[in-house]
Amino acid sequence: QILILDFGSQYTQLIARRVRELDVYCEIHPYNHIPDLSPNVKGIILSGSPCSVRDADSPRIDLDQYRKQVPILGVCYGAQMLAQMLGGDVMPSQHREYGRAKLEIGDTDSSLLAGLSETSQVWMSHADTIVRIPENFRIIASTESVEVAAFKIENELTYGIQFHPEVTHSTEGKQLLHNFVVGICGCRQDWTSESFVETTIQGLRTRLGEDKVVMALSGGVDSTVAATLVHRAIGTNLYCIFVDNGLLRKGEFEQVLHSYQDMGLNIKGVDAKAQFYTALAGLEEPEAKRKAIGKAFIEVFDHEAHLIQDVKWLGQGTIYPDVIESVSVKGPSATIKSHHNVGGLPDFMKLKVVEPLNTLFKDEVRAVGRAMGITNSILNRHPFPGPGLGIRILGDITPEKVAILQEVDAIFINGLKKHELYDEVWQAGAMLLPVQSVGVMGDERTYERVVALRAVTSVDGMTADWAHLPYTFLAEVSNEIINRVKGVNRVVYDISSKPPATIEWE
Ligand code: XMP
């Protein structure tokens, strides 16, 4: 594997993704929490950073521990740190060095740059530049404005590059990373979904033995794939719980429960609708509703978990971005989240935790799911918030409002599927607004509810644009909603992007 040491760059996760696209396993660790070098580690990549090596308190590592042990590639800040700590000089850049540049390769023998075209396009993004390299360094590539665009340390496999090979604008960046990871570090390209499934199942068998595991499923990709892995490892010793909180989509509870049963999972469907509606009665404020829903879920799950004798583990569908986020570099004084006092937690939270997907990115989770034969209807499902329709009914929640919104949502989502637009958008749904408006139906005046449709395109949910759905489609859906859903006489379409709006309305 490759170890990626994170100094806080926005691109660190991208480096990891590129390495994995080469079918080589890698892990990101913050520079101030580096694990011991195991024999599995074949090379180290030092990431970029928003910090400047010229600052006294900028992040640093003890390079001597790693140099000559394994090959090292410093990227941007990582390269500057190598140059400066080993006796070179780094200064603020004279020119604007942000954007595309042409690489002039000075050393065609360099195995790092092997196979790159003579004027390869690379992506620069830096405010400092290396102005003097130590004596034992050799420049292997330059650009018009950056003399030290790439270097190698003589007699060792340590390299630095000022540009970002992980960004697609570096058109041959993948070749460079291949040269480093496969050519120089000698990693085998055998980390595939199939191999992940096989080794994970074996690992889970050893770790869990005859122990029982309890897991809450949501119908979403992550929990389903995680449960399938654990199920393949320990069979019916995995106890799955799927809670109907009364805030799911129309028919979703029954459908998802059936798919889980078809997959052979040991699943229990729990109808807790009444408990959630009671907990929510009269609550209007979004955060109060979220808290009530979260609390009710914990109570239901804790009760169910207690019914299983001797359960030892809690399975979870946590994925890699959640893990990296919680240990990301926040500056030299970064600390890892400390554990809460477990005294006041429900019993199931005192269980040992097993998270088989906590090293995977979302698209890798889907690939693993595909490798295990999970249906596309689950793998390609839009994200759906835990509090469900509870945060899409603005104001207080009643079973009647849920029923109205479920109908509206079903017409919208089925329409998207029928018109083959479902996979074009990242997420879609409907909001029931606390507004009534005047309309006319036949000769009658109506005074009924307004619903807002929301569909967005996005990569990760952090930013999003409203989906530019065809007018003809919106017209058809709006007609169907107003004609078929009693109590709704007006449909609006949300054309706000995130930021400044959010995807959900509450
Ligand atoms: P926002 O509304 O913050 O949503 O733009 C971003 C993504 O997160 C989902 N979301 C939630 N998911 N519990 C969840 O499990 C929540 O309380 C919650 N709030 C928002 C939202 O559906 C979107 O995918």
Automatic annotation (TrEMBL):
SUPFAM superfamilies: Adenine nucleotide alpha hydrolases-like, Class I glutamine amidotransferase-like, GMP synthetase C-terminal dimerisation domain
InterPro entries for the chain: Class_I_gatase-like, GATASE, GMP_synth_C, GMP_synth_GATase, GMP_synthase, GMPS_ATP_PPase_dom, NAD/GMP_synthase, Rossmann-like_a/b/a_fold
Superkingdom of source: Bacteria
Active-site residue list: C76 (nucleophile), H164, E166
Entry EC no(s): 6.3.5.2
Enzyme class: ligase
Main function: Catalyzes the synthesis of GMP from XMP.
SUBUNIT field: Homodimer.
Protein name per UniProt: GMP synthase [glutamine-hydrolyzing]
Origin species: Arundinibacter roseus
